[in-house]
Specification:
Number of helices: 18
Radius of gyration: 21 Å
CATH superfamily: MFS general substrate transporter like domains
Largest sheet: none
Shape: globular
CATH topology: Growth Hormone, Chain: A
Structural class: mainly alpha
Distance between the termini: 37 Å
Length: 424
């Protein structure tokens, strides 16, 4: 082979080594690592552009949809992306090349996003709300397919000590685009329906582009399996280490559920700026940009330690919010954004570490089943914790924040009792 022919492979391997901090095992891993970063970055950009908590809620409000329809957006998205995974995992584990499940899921998400944009352009009121919720349900199901297959594909195409760096860099890179989007929202330049629909259309195109890139992944076919399809599920359900992980991750869902209640505390203090669409988007994107890659590299060393640190940081941020609220200064213009930023730093730590721990811990022949069991359980916990937060907030937003602070602290403490997945 000539020097010219090997130069692209050497360049890919060198770039991957700079990203991961260690050289790839072979040329294929270097190329695959870069494909993971690119495709995952595109999907994370899409997530930011079509965030149901913020962007779709604002859009349905602008379209005059009823409040009960708007309130259904987040449960449809979160539960729909997690609960179906246990039904999809068996299908994934029967596939010889699991990348095709992810490719199909990303492509369907792209089509669903384009359908949401079309509904926002052509419909109004209840009809728009129902059509967008239906498209979001399809998007969530497709996301479940991506989630249940991705950890398995990542584990089989990128080495154990380099996976966190790959996912972390994708999170940081994508957040730059979302930061720009958030700043445009906060400036008022995108406070119209048309530009928001363009952003949602762009999200759809990014998902389609990610599917095309991921389809080129060099994945070794899995040998045909002859044991019962339920065997990996039984193995996962009997695994005490996985059960403890589900408990820890379930407690740390508080980092995802708490941000809207911080906004409620700020709004009760009279901070009108935080009612705008861009505030939470900017806080999350800036936190992701500054922390995702760092959290990912740390997770490659000890994901359970990152879970513990993230839980403690989230609890600390929420306690600070309660203290500031009690002092009557939570409504000051700079206070709530700073608290949100700290909380989202912790949230992104949880996101990076939970993925790395599960990929490193799960057996190679049952990784999809382990992911499906864990994610389905977390989907149910999210519904229960979200309902509990709603009940507590009916008394006061501060009561809900206190509950989430306690959950985060307990989850962080229990994380140190997890098996050190990277030690093996």
């Amino acid at each position: 082979m000539s020097v010219t022919e090997t130069r692209p492979e050497a360049a890919a391997g060198g770039l991957f080594e700079r990203i991961a901090g260690s050289p790839p095992e072979d040329a294929a891993e270097g190329r695959n690592g870069l494909r993971h970063v690119t495709s995952l970055s595109l999907t994370k950009v899409s997530d930011g552009l079509i965030d149901p908590k913020l962007v779709l809620s604002w859009l349905l409000t602008a379209l005059g949809s009823p409040a009960w329809v708007i309130g259904a957006l987040v449960p449809i998205r979160e539960a729909g992306a997690l609960i179906p995974q246990i039904a999809l995992a068996g299908w994934v584990e029967r596939m010889r090349r699991r990348k095709w499940m992810w490719v199909a899921g990303s492509a369907v998400q792209g089509m669903a996003a384009l359908s949401i944009a079309a509904a926002g352009l052509l419909l109004e009121g209840l009809a728009a709300g129902l059509a967008i919720c239906a498209a979001l349900a399809v998007l969530a199901l497709a996301r479940a397919a991506c989630s249940v297959s991705y950890k398995d594909v990542l584990g089989r195409t990128v080495g154990e000590s380099r996976r966190g760096a790959v996912t972390g860099l994708a999170g940081s890179a994508a957040s730059l685009a979302v930061v720009v989007f958030a700043l445009l929202l906060m400036s008022g330049l995108l406070q119209e329906k048309g530009p928001v629909l363009i952003a949602i259309t762009l999200a759809g195109l990014c998902w389609l582009g990610a599917a095309a890139i991921f389809s080129t992944l060099e994945e070794t076919p899995v040998e045909e399996r002859h044991e019962s399809a339920t065997l990996p599920f039984r193995k996962a359900l009997r695994d005490n280490g996985l059960r403890r992980f589900v408990l820890v991750r379930g407690l740390l869902v508080s980092t995802a559920l708490a941000p809207p209640y911080i906004v409620l505390l700020a709004a009760s203090g009279g901070d009108a700026a935080l009612k705008q669409l861009g505030a939470l988007v900017l806080a999350s994107a800036a936190a992701s940009f500054l922390s995702s890659y760092v959290w990912g590299r740390l997770s490659d060393r000890s994901s359970r330690l990152v879970l513990a640190l993230s839980g403690a940081a989230a609890s600390g941020a929420l306690v600070i919010a309660l203290v500031l609220d009690a002092g009557g200064i939570m409504g000051a213009g700079w206070v709530a954004p700073a608290v949100l930023f700290g909380l989202m730093i912790a949230y992104h730590g949880v996101r990076q570490a939970r993925s790395v721990w599960l990929v490193d811990y799960a057996p190679d022949d049952a990784r999809a089943s382990y992911a499906a069991v864990a994610n389905t359980a977390i989907g149910l916990i999210l519904l229960a914790a979200g309902a509990a937060g709603g009940v507590l907030s009916s008394m006061s937003p501060s009561v809900a924040v206190a509950g989430f602070a306690a959950m985060a602290a307990l989850g962080g403490g229990l994380a140190m009792t997890l098996e050190d997945a990277e030690a093996g």
